[in-house]
Amino acid sequence: MFFFVVILPVFVLGTTIGFFNSQKVEFNYLFGMVELPLIALLIAEFVLVALLTLGASFLRVFGLKAEIRRLRKQLRDSETELRNLRALSAPPASPAAPLAAPPKVP
């Protein structure tokens, strides 16, 4: 179902764009010149931009994951320190002493 709803129309649209952009164009780049169909240049540009975007996204995600690991370690250390401080300030445990009965008034 997903194929017919999303993939098939995209495929048909891509084929149509490819058909109408099949004329040869001259592409000048830094080291020379090449003559290619316009659709080939459009696809190459799309792939190149997609790869660059994915690379930049992966770098950002990798940096954020490193920051999460650092913050989790910092939180764990802070919780340990807080536990230790609470243990220091707590009164020492004493054996349960029986409660004294109040004195009787005659």
UniProtKB/TrEMBL annotation:
The chain crosses the membrane at residues 38-63. The keyword Lipid metabolism does not apply. One of its GO terms (cellular component) is plasma membrane. Residues 86-106 are annotated as: Disordered. Residues 92-106 have a biased composition (Pro residues). Residues 21-82 form the Lipopolysaccharide assembly protein A domain. Pfam families: LapA_dom. Keywords: Cell membrane, Membrane, Transmembrane, Transmembrane helix. This is DUF1049 domain-containing protein. The lineage of its organism: Bacteria, Pseudomonadati, Pseudomonadota, Gammaproteobacteria, Nevskiales.
